[in-house]
Amino acid sequence: MQTPGDFDLSRRGVLAGGAASIAAVTIVPTEPAAARSKPAPAPPAAKVAFEVNGTRRELELDTRTSLLDALREHLHLTGTKKGCDHGQCGACTVIVDGRRINSCLSLAVMHDGDKITTIEGLGTPDKMHAMQTAFVEHDGYQCGYCTPGQICSAVAVLDEIKAGIPSHVTADLTAPPQVTALELRERMSGNICRCGAYSNIIDAISDVAGVKA
Ligand code: FES
Ligand code: FES
Questions:
Q1: What are phi and psi of 63, to 5 degrees?
Q2: Which of 19, 30, 59, 173 is deepest in the core (most CB within 10 A)?
Q3: How far is C-alpha 147 from the geometric centre of its chain's CA atoms?
Q4: Where are the alpha helices (DSSP H) in the chain?
């Protein structure tokens, strides 16, 4: 018959055996110290040359650098904003060879030879682009964080409409698109404004287009 002492002895035995098993499975061979201190390999780098706001710029970049980071961190053009960094807000919109793109979604090294226009290239405080003036006159912003992207997008949108590029709301694809509030809202829908300045933004763009929204 088992006494309390027997039980205690066998319980200790089980615990000791368990601990030994755990130690056995957790002991792993370790790397030699020299191998551990080896520096990580340098990230792959590449040269890229593009024209930014009319000036040729040459950079050597980690190939994973987004166009947005190349502009902001390497060329110090901080007018272009990083909102989501995931292609969802439009704050990083720039114009590349006449087309607006989300610069956070594009690798800088893909733009070798391209012509890039950022908000700094559209106008200056002393000599503003018509779209910048219209945004000021129509109060098309509050905090201003989305504004550089909104303005770059708006400039490209009017060019798209002028070029007859249809949008999802163009009912008749054979007819040239018109500058209407609906058309502008659709085309500007990739540019989010957390302050909700949407109606004033549409008023500003319509003003530049010479129509009443
Ligand atoms: Fe590029 Fe938001 S930062 S879309
Ligand atoms: Fe603040 Fe648009 S003005 S997010």
A1: -65, -15
A2: 59
A3: 15
A4: 4-26, 33-36, 67-69, 119-122, 130-137, 147-162, 181-187, 198-209
- Work out which ligand 1 atom sits closest to the CA atom of 85: 3
CA of 104 to the centre of ligand 1 (A): 6
Q: Please state the domain extents for the chain.
A: 43-122, 123-213
Digit-coded pLDDT (tens) for 12-55: 554 445 444 444 445 555 666 666 778 888 889 999 999 999 99
Query: Which residues of the chain fall below pLDDT 70?
Result: 1-35, 170-171
The closest ligand to the CA of 91 turns out to be 1
Q: What is the C-alpha to C-alpha distance for residues 74 and 46, in angstroms, rounded to an integer?
A: 14
Which residue do the tokens 């610069």 mark? 103
Residues with CB under 6 A from ligand 2: 141-147, 193-195, 197
Indicate the helix (H) or strand (E) that contains 95.
strand 93-96
- Nearest ligand (C-alpha, residue 144): 2
In whole angstroms, how large is the CA radius of gyration of the chain? Answer: 29
CATH architecture of 43-122: Roll (3.10)
52 touches 118 (CB < 8 A): yes
Please indicate, yes or no, whether the overall pTM of this predicted structure exceeds 0.85. Answer: no
